[in-house]
Amino acid sequence: STEEALPALLEEAGGLWKQSFPASAYREDAALGSGPAARRPGQGAAPSRMFSYRREGGGAPGRAGTARFLAQHNTWGFVATRAARGKIQGMPYGNCLLLSDGPINNSTGIPFFYVTPKDNTVTDLLRNPMASLTLPEADGNFCRKNVIDPEDARCARLTLTGQMVTVPPEEVEFAKQAMFSRHPVVRKWPRSYEWFFMKMNIEHIWLQSW
């Protein structure tokens, strides 16, 4: 299994650890008396490059291409708002929401959401529309295929900040295509929850990509 193979990969001279981290990582490990460098002092020198994995089908090269790839292929994201209710009023509040930036063959880079006013996050947004949206690479196959923890720096993360607004009537049909094509199940969600569409007007983009 993957879990059984991982320790061997980390200890092998040509394994995952050696391929991915610079020589300084081993020197620090040796000083601490732990990790592969301490257990295997005879290992060869680490390669000079740092994170060396390539994304297959990752869209255009470079940071902009990585950002658009994450926006297109993530089906959910972590939305942070400022709480507008109760004892946590004014404090940060986070929630995971389904999203889509368009039908799979018509990516826009703009995240659309299908939400209900019964959701605390939506209550916050109707009071203060500023929010941040984090899209992790954990949603794809890259990290899993390369036996990398989603919190590892090699798994890119994209954070978008801006205003969350109700989708205007002229865009509702496109929002339906975007959400329902990626998340068919939401069509069956109870209508009594008064679902409607929101989107983020992006003002800032922050990408973690090693």
Automatic annotation (TrEMBL):
<dbReference type="Pfam" id="PF13883">
    <property type="entry name" value="CREG_beta-barrel"/>
</dbReference>
<dbReference type="InterPro" id="IPR055343">
    <property type="entry name" value="CREG_beta-barrel"/>
</dbReference>
<dbReference type="GO" id="GO:0005615">
    <property type="term" value="C:extracellular space"/>
</dbReference>
<keyword id="KW-0732">Signal</keyword>
<comment type="similarity">
    <text>Belongs to the CREG family.</text>
</comment>
<dbReference type="GO" id="GO:0012505">
    <property type="term" value="C:endomembrane system"/>
</dbReference>
<protein>
    <submittedName>
        <fullName>CREG2 protein</fullName>
    </submittedName>
</protein>
<keyword id="KW-0964">Secreted</keyword>
<dbReference type="InterPro" id="IPR012349">
    <property type="entry name" value="Split_barrel_FMN-bd"/>
</dbReference>
<dbReference type="GO" id="GO:0005737">
    <property type="term" value="C:cytoplasm"/>
</dbReference>
<feature type="domain" description="CREG-like beta-barrel">
    <location>
        <begin position="63"/>
        <end position="210"/>
    </location>
</feature>
<dbReference type="InterPro" id="IPR014631">
    <property type="entry name" value="CREG"/>
</dbReference>
<keyword id="KW-0325">Glycoprotein</keyword>
